[in-house]
Amino acid sequence: MDKQLKTYVLIAGVVVVWGMIGYQIYSKFTTKEFNFQQQQQQSYQPKTIHNKAQYSIRKHERDPFLGTVTTANPVKVPRAKKAVSPVEFPNIRFNGVVKHGKKRAYIITVNGSQELFMRGELKRGIKLTSGTNNTVRLRYKGVTKVFTLPK
Q: Does domain 92-148 have CATH number 3.40.1090.10?
């Protein structure tokens, strides 16, 4: 196909497309006679309403992703509380503090024998959690007590 023939074909295509667009616009703006008498003769008839089926939402017992079946609300049985017996501390007495630089050692008498405790150290089931110059905090079997320096 030579160049001139292609140009004529394209021009014809453009004229056809614009003609169709123009016809659509023209047909929308032209008025058609509307017969009002036919509209008035029709009577109003309301649609009959049918009762729709009632649906309810239920909890699915099967997990759609895992495929496992869940049971209905499990019954929770209250557990009996364990009788907490009071923890009896051994005979403990706080005697003083020994300082060496930034380190501190606390002198504590446990059942008649003196021990040197560092912070966080565990001896005879007794752990020194914290201490100052006048008080120490000791933990024995999960129970914490504070002991002070006697005057």
A: no
- Among candidates 84, 136, 96, which has minimal Cα distance to 126? 136
Residue 101 CB partners (closer than 8 Å, separation 6+)? none
What is the number of other CB atoms lying within 10 angstroms of the CB of residue 147? 17
Chain centroid, CA 136 distance in Å: 42
Task: Report yes or no on whether pTM surpasses 0.85.
Answer: no
Output 19-27 pairs: Cβ under 8 A, ≥24 positions apart: none
Amino acid found at 41: Q
What does the domain layout of the chain look like in residue ranges? 92-148
Per the CB < 8 A criterion, the answer to whether 117 and 123 are in contact is yes
> What integer pLDDT is reported at residue 42 of this predicted model?
66
